[in-house]
Amino acid sequence: MERKLPSRLDDFFFDLYGYLILKNAVDTELLAELNTVFDHFPPLERGDWWGNAQRRDYTGDTGFELHNCVEVGEPFEKLIDHPSWVDYLRHYCGEEESYVQGLFIDECIASIRRSGGHHPVHSGGYKGALRGKYHYENGVFRCGQCNIIVALTDIGPGDGPTMVIPGSHKSNFPHPLQGDYGKGDRMDDLPGAIPVYMEKGDALLFVDGLMHGGSSRTNEGERRITIYRYGPLWGATRFGYEYSASLLDRLTPERRAILQPLAPNRPPVNDVS
């Protein structure tokens, strides 16, 4: 696909709302490849490993969440530097025009949510972690983390769409009706929250400091998405996952540079000093 660059209009709305919807970001061929891998996920329990990937659901309600999913098949590798969004990420959270310019993926997840599942509301500008902070100064973006959610199925009413509170990435106050993250608070009726509906192949790009979560899925069937979280090259994987040598060795130099921006600096093996 042709590489897409953020426009001045994109910058305006990303700054204003904290998110963008990238229409038709992933083509039908790659969608089919990804869904085929999803179809063959083993019946993992929470905490189980599948090769170098691990099922690590955030809560008991969020559904099947396979972390480090880039390890489970070539289709997931194609998402690392996908031309529909990689230059957006370099622009918003890649320390553009600095001596540490570059990207790093600190988390990548394959998610399946079924009826009843949801993700509690979290983040927001108030007392937000620096890792997910929104920042713009002197003509450059310096976001700590930006996320790409790719819809592998159509996500409409009742399908458990991601919900956001536009502009909350800049909030100086806590939401009066938001409880503590992890307490199970649903976003469905939270004042100011709106659902983000997507057709399969669309991608949602947002700064992690935006207040967000997953609304309750009430329909039958499955909501399938991938979540890739990007940050500056000096970052580290959130849960300490290490990419396997076999994966790093087969990646293109461009993709490897995103998963491993700085290779380990070790002395020669014959150094006995």
Strands, helices and their partners?
Blueprint lengths: L7 H10 L1 E4 L5 H12 L9 E2 L2 E3 L8 E4 L6 H4 L8 H8 L9 E11 L5 E4 L13 E2 L2 E2 L4 E6 L10 E3 L29 E2 L7 E5 L4 E3 L8 E10 L12 H6 L2 H7 L14
Antiparallel strand pairs: 1-12, 2-3, 3-4, 4-5, 5-14, 6-13, 7-8, 9-12, 9-14, 10-11, 10-13
Question: How does this model look, in words?
Answer:
This protein is of the alpha+beta class. The chain has one domain: Jelly Rolls, CATH 2.60.120. It has helices at about 10-15, 30-40, 75, 85-95, 245-250, 255-260, and strands at about 20, 50, 55, 65, 105-115, 120, 135, 140, 145-150, 160-165, 195, 205, 210-215, 225-230. The strands form three sheets. It has an eight-stranded antiparallel β-sheet. It is globular and about 60 Å long. The protein starts with 7 loop residues before the first helix and ends in a 14-residue tail after the last helix. The mean pLDDT is about 90.
* CATH topology assignment: Jelly Rolls
CATH class: Mainly Beta
Average per-residue pLDDT, rounded, comes to 92
Number of strands: 14
Strand content: 15-25%
Reported for the largest beta sheet, the result is: 8 strands, antiparallel
Helix content: 10-25%
CATH homologous superfamily grouping: q2cbj1_9rhob like domain
- Largest sheet: spatial strand order: 1-12-9-14-5-4-3-2
Terminal CA distance reads 51 Å
